[in-house]
Amino acid sequence: MNAKIIVSAIAECLVVASAFGEVAVNFAAQRGEVNPRLHSSHFCPRYAASSANVEKDVAALSKLNLAAWRSHDAPLVAGGQRVVDTHFIFPLLHLDPKDPKNYFFKATDNLLAPVQEACKMKVFYRLGTSIEHTSNKNATNTLNPQDHVKYAEALAGIVRHYTRGWADGFNWDIEYWELFNEPNIKPCWRGTRDEFIDLFVTCLKRLKGEFPELKIGGPALAWLDEPFTRELLAACKKAGVAPDFFSWHWYGIDPEEPVRQTARAKELVAECGFPDVELILNEWHYLAENNWDAVRGPREAWLRTHTGPAAMNGVDSAAFTMTVEAKLQDTALSQAFFYGCGFDWCDWGYFDAVKRCYFKPYYALQAMGELVKCKTKVRATSSDKGVTPLAAVSADGREAVVLVADYKSGLGSIDVVLENAAGWRLKDVRVIDDKNDLAPIDAKLEGDRLKLIKNDRLSCCFVARFARQP
Predict the structure, then answer these.
(1) Do 343 and 41 meet the contact criterion of CB atoms below 8 Å apart?
(2) Both 117 and 213 in a single domain?
């Protein structure tokens, strides 16, 4: 036989051999509890909308089964309402922060109520201001407050209103209170680093003094900024006050990166003398091409990053979303917040206002919402780096959900091999791909093997549900 033909035949065999991956799921190998707080976001019902649309929002968000809502950037999608941000609630810093008459709470009261009551999400309240996309000369909200002590007193008034009923307020179970957002970039902080650190420590000490039972922390860094973190935590240590949690943000395309960053963050806070501080990644999202300039760029770059499977809200983004959430379940994070914000807010919403449909990541979040209803994780492994499984069994041991996220693997099919599956039956399998949104597929369990055939070699997500035979 011709040598070229032999080589070609071998190459074809190798391609065929690599065309499928294998996932192993062991229903009997328990490995800890599912952490539902890693399945959180910035989504909440629209504030400025008709009652009918708010009801639709509640229904859409309820399907996601999100554990918590972070209040950051809420004013940017609240139809011009004065909500959440400190300068909206206590607008005149020269007034007395101990006098309830100097606060405007009503709009924020109205915003927070349905989040907790209708959507059943915990509130993670960010104190301070939303991002301010202005030039330095036009900035007002992100300037350094002239009186840090007085500002801290105003924050105490806000916390007191929502947790202790002050100023005709509430006794809501809002445990986490975050001090500020992304102080290491100018759109969120126009003062110096030293000024921010003094403000942070002053506010932390004031709030921990009155509310020791609550979790107070921050500073929601724009990235895992180690020099900033060291300076901030050194100042806390010097002042004799400890944050309850440390938070930062990450956007990218490598789903392993937040895992690596969490491991490094754990080392970092320990090196700074706070080994027991909670770690919270409270903004993360797929970033097309890993390039902010392209996503925000001219028409050609914008179209490239906003159309097709690799778009900001395409199927790559959906598979990435499921992959990251699955991987975060095995980290030291106590909470994580997908940066969705608003309803039809372009890159960061969950609804495409032009096509009148939900974005692909919405369905990935919905699938994850089904899994986190289960209590116990079970072992799930993959032969392929691009395929990430996550499996869990319900508290009563009668239901199980297996998620399989294929993020740019290039495979044609995936076999799920079940171990210790006696007594379990397959209920259904659904797929998220470039053409389908949690659509049911005809997949059968043959012995201990479930073959998942993809419609193409693009990214996709599978959701398989099982029930234990009575």
Answers:
(1) no
(2) yes
Pair 328, 384 in one domain:
no
Residue with tokens 């700074």: 272
The answer to whether residue 2 is domain-embedded is: no
* CATH assignment of the domain containing 422: 2.60.40.1180
Range of the domain at 419: 15-32+376-468
CA 34 – CA 392 distance, rounded (Å): 8
Q: Which residue has the tokens 């180690």?
A: 226
Distance CA(355)–CA(384), nearest Å, equals 34
Please report which confidence band the pLDDT of residue 48 belongs to, taking 50, 70 and 90 as the band edges: confident
Q: In the prediction, which pLDDT does 7 show?
A: 36
| Whole-number average pLDDT of the chain | 95
pLDDT in tens, 281-321: 999 999 999 999 999 999 999 999 999 999 999 999 999 99
CATH number at residue 301: 3.20.20.80
Distance CA 379, CA 360 (A): 27
Return the closest-CA partner of residue 279 out of 326, 220, 325. Answer: 220
pLDDT digits (tens, 9 = 90+) for 342-385: 999 999 999 999 999 999 999 999 999 999 999 999 999 999 99
Above 90 in pLDDT, residue 14? no
Say whether both 252 and 309 belong to one domain. Answer: yes
Where does residue 400 rank: exposed (0-12), middle (13-18), buried (19+ CB within 10 A)?
buried
Q: Does residue 29 sit in helix, strand or coil?
A: strand
Q: Are 74 and 125 in contact (CB under 8 A)?
A: no
Euclidean distance between CA atoms 41 and 338, whole angstroms: 5
Decide if 10 is inside a domain: no
Backbone phi and psi for residue 183, each to the nearest 5 degrees, phi listed first: -70, -5
Strands of 328-375 (E only): list them.
333-341, 351-352, 357-358
Amino acid identity of residue 66, one-letter, is: L
Query: CB–CB of 257/222 below 8 Å?
Result: no
What percent of the chain is predicted at pLDDT more than 70?
96
| Pair 234, 271 in one domain | yes
| 106 is a domain residue | yes
